[in-house]
Amino acid sequence: MSQTPPPPNWHKSSYSGGVGNDCVEVADNQPHVLIRDSKLSDGPVVEMTRSAWSAFIGTVAK
After folding, report:
1. 25, 38, 52, 55: most buried, per Cβ within 10 A?
2. What is d(CA 59, CA 30) in angstroms, rounded to the nearest whole number?
3. C-alpha to C-alpha distances, 42 to 20, 36, 58, nearest whole angstrom
4. What is the DSSP string of 24-37?
5. Phi, psi (5° rounding) for residue 17?
6. Amino acid 34: pLDDT
7. Residue stretches of the chain with pLDDT short of 70
């Protein structure tokens, strides 16, 4: 029997600057990493494997 994952624990990017609501939110307490636009909390969600997320962060952090 598979278990249902907990609700996403969304947190905002540290690069959002704290001004307005213009940033990306990530939930990493799921089987996969979830990414969404904070302005569209009911909008689409991008789902990535943990390895794809690590590769993405490694590329954009350079």
Report:
1. 25
2. 22
3. 18, 9, 28
4. EEEE-SSSSEEEEE
5. 80, -5
6. 94
7. 1-2, 15-22
What are the residues whose beta carbons fall under 8 Å from the beta carbon of 57, sequence distance 6 or more? none
pLDDT on residue 52: 95
pLDDT for residue 27: 92
Q: Which residue has the tokens 């994952």?
A: 5
Please state, in angstroms and rounded to a whole number, the distance separating the CA atoms of residues 18 and 25: 13
| 18/48 Cα distance (integer angstroms) | 25
Rounded Cα gap, residues 16 and 25, in angstroms: 10
Cα 25 to Cα 39: distance, rounded to the nearest angstrom: 10
Q: Using only C-alpha atoms, what is the Rg of the chain?
A: 13
